[in-house]
C-alpha cells in the first residue's frame, strides 16, 4: 500500500508542471464576464489580465504554495489558497463598497500632508530602494489617525501603483491592512513607533530588461533579507551562507537548538518547528555584521517554500535590519536566485 501511495503522489507531482491554471472571471450579481481583472500569484511577477471573455491562462512557472490573487477596481479582492491546476476555474467577484469604519472617523489632529509623509517613509522605507520609489496614485489613499489608540491607518480604493527606479520594478500593491502604532499622540517616528504593520498582495512587472546595474542592486537587497533567510532554512545551506543565530546576551546558538525543519504537507512546503520563541540573527556583509531579531508571536511552527515565502505571516515579528526592509526593498518570489551568485 505504501508503494502505491508513493507512485500516485509522484504521478500527481509530475502532472503539475504540464498543466496551466486557467479560468473565467465574472460578476456574481449580473453574471457578466469581467475584462481587465488581474490574476496573479501573490508576490511574484507571474500573472495575466483577463481578456474580453473574462478568460485567463497562466503557465505553472511557480512551484509553490503561493496563493492566486484575483483583483479588479470596484470588486472585492479574491484569494485562492490552493488553485486547481489543469481545470477551468469559475471565479465570481462581488462589488466592493469602500466604507471607513466609524472608529477612524474620530477627531484627527493631523493634516493629510503630515500623515502622507509618514506613510511614505514607513511603507516605502528609507533605504536607497525606498527613496527611489514613488506611489503613482496617492489620491487613492485615505489616511486617518485614531487619537484614542495613537494609530495611523491607511485604506485604498484601488491597488497602489509603485515605480521602483532603483530595483527596476513596477509594483501593484493591493493594500489590505496598514497601521502604525505610536507611543504618543504624535507622528514623530524616532523612538515613538511601537509597531508598523503592512499587509497586502503584490504583483511585480520587471522593467529592467536584465540590465547589469539592476542585477547587482537586487543582489545587495536580497542578501541578508527575510527572503534570503527563509531560503537558507529551506536549503539548510548554513555553511554556504553568512547567517548566525545568537541569544539576546549575544551567545551563539546552534541552528538545531533554535528550530527543526521537517517535511511539509506537499512537495512544495516544509514545516519549521521553533524551539526558541525569540533570537537574534546576524548576517555578515564583508567585514560588517547586520543585526536583526525574530520573535514568535504565537504558535510554534510555520510553513515555508523554496522561494522564501512563509505562512502564517502573523506569527513572526522581525526587528532590526530585516524590519527596515519595506516595499522599496521587496523582490518577487520568482526572482532568479542563482543569478545572484554569478
Shape: globular
Mean pLDDT rating? 87
Order of helices and strands: HEEEEEEEHHEEEEEEHHEEHEEEEEEE
Number of strands: 22
Helix content: 10-25%
Describe, in plain words, how this protein is organized in 3D:
The chain is an alpha+beta fold and 342 residues long. The chain is built from six helices and 22 strands. Strands 8, 9, 10, 11, 12 and 13 form a six-stranded antiparallel sheet that branches. A five-stranded antiparallel sheet has the order 15-14-18-19-22. A four-stranded antiparallel sheet has the order 3-2-5-6, with no helix packed on it. Strand 18 and strand 19 form a beta hairpin. The chain is globular. The protein starts with a helix and ends in a 22-residue tail after the last strand. The N terminus is likely disordered.
Key descriptive features of the protein:
disordered N terminus, 342 residues, five-stranded antiparallel beta sheet, alpha+beta
In short, what is this structure?
Helices cover 17% and strands 36% of the residues. It has 342 residues and is α+β, with helices and mostly antiparallel strands. A hairpin with a 4-residue loop joins strand 11 (160-164) and strand 12 (169-182).
